[in-house]
């Protein structure tokens, strides 16, 4: 029985009837699609490597402590592996509609918080895996690691019978309360130790405070439009679109104009939002779209852990700039400034403070935030590096992979970026009720890359 960290638990607390807090990866494979027993045999042989796949969430009575993971005594692999097919003719548009519908449904909290959908029936013979996992279990990097765990490194990988697994007896409410009280006793002691450490290491304390102050100074809110159509109430339904380029094209742009891979990607996304706003007849002159940029703080020795280890930076996408090179240079300069001022460090420090907040207060705060409309952030753009080796499922090679990022609060559009064997793919999530023109954003991202390539 493991207790969720405050950051992991917050993704449970913020979830409601319109905020679906699951992430996903959409993987495409060359056909033919495997038989159901082939895929389930492969997955069953990997379950011992992902303990969370056979555990479910238990909430502590009165929420006096954070929720815990405990074994699901009724675990059934067949419940979590779903098989479906596209109706003829099996187009990409039909598949995108299916992804939106699957992602519009919340995961069942009475069971382990994941599903894998095997989708066949594509007109060109391909098939797909839609892997859906709750954000309380993994962040983007851990989700990528998970993809490498459940899939194979070679086409001829053997799948031995699953190891014998016996679930532990689930805790009673009384046991959950007793453990919560014990943790409550430990918490003040941890705070005292932290305070004592700060007193005995004053230079380190001053350095950390300086980093936090420096980072917070860059989080000012400017130039964003309070009446932007990018913000507003969202509903329970989702649309999903994709765009893509190659690492070779990104490197060509970097060689010509400098910056990082992420800078080039953000510049393309900026052009996409510029096109979207112009199509909506909104002013873009001297305007930016403020985005939350999740940043992994996972160390190399923490790879493989199934949890969240993320911080964030807040960047401003200069949609008012028409020239693609000027736009890229503006983003490069801004991102260098945010890194220099340690904004992600400050955000991580603030997040870590939730560990000292009473769990009941943390839960209440997250739920209140989920229902508050805000205009300080218009979108989310998250970039997760994927494996650069070919992965396989039941002997079939994975030829492409796309990400899915959840929406929450009053953010109506989110963009996730994923890399795999030389490809860069964009997965765009939007609220189906308020965003009917997402294709403009998707084509605008592709156009943003083409514009930059034309300047090389």
Structure description:
β5 (81-85), α4 (92-103) and β6 form a beta-alpha-beta unit. The chain has a six-stranded mixed beta sheet. The protein is α+β, with helices and mostly antiparallel strands and 456 residues long. The chain has helices at residues 6-13, 36-44, 77-80, 92-103, 140-150, 173-200, 202-216, 247-257, 261-279, 324-340, 343-352, 359-370, 438-454, and strands spanning 2-3, 22-29, 55-58, 68-71, 81-85, 114-120, 127-134, 238-246, 289-296, 310-317, 379-384, 392-393, 396-404, 413-420, 423-431. Mean pLDDT is 83; it is low at 189-199, 208-219 and 342-369. It is 38% helix and 21% strand. It has a single domain, classed as Nonribosomal peptide synthetase, condensation domain (Chloramphenicol Acetyltransferase, 2-Layer Sandwich). The protein starts with a strand and ends with a helix. The chain has 13 helices and 15 strands.
Provide a compact summary of the structure.
This protein is α+β, with helices and mostly antiparallel strands and 456 residues long. Helices cover 38% and strands 21% of the residues.
Which key terms come to mind for this protein?
single chain; Chloramphenicol Acetyltransferase
Rg over CA atoms: 23 Å
Summed over residues and divided by their number, the pLDDT gives a mean of 83
Which sheet architecture does the biggest sheet show? 6 strands, mixed
So how many helices? 13
CATH superfamily: Nonribosomal peptide synthetase, condensation domain
Uncertain spans: 189-199, 208-219, 342-369
Task: Classify the secondary structure makeup into a structural class.
Answer: alpha+beta
Shape: globular
How much helical structure, as a percent, in the residues? 25-40%
Query: Helices and strands, in N-to-C order?
Result: EHEHEEHEHEEHHHEHHEEHHHEEEEEH
Strand content: 15-25%
Number of strands: 15
Which strand order does the major sheet show? 5-6-7-2-13-12
Task: Look up the CATH topology.
Answer: Chloramphenicol Acetyltransferase
User: Span between N and C termini?
Assistant: 56 Å
Query: Which CATH top level class fits?
Result: Alpha Beta
In the residues, how many domains can be counted? Answer: 1
Name the CATH architecture.
2-Layer Sandwich
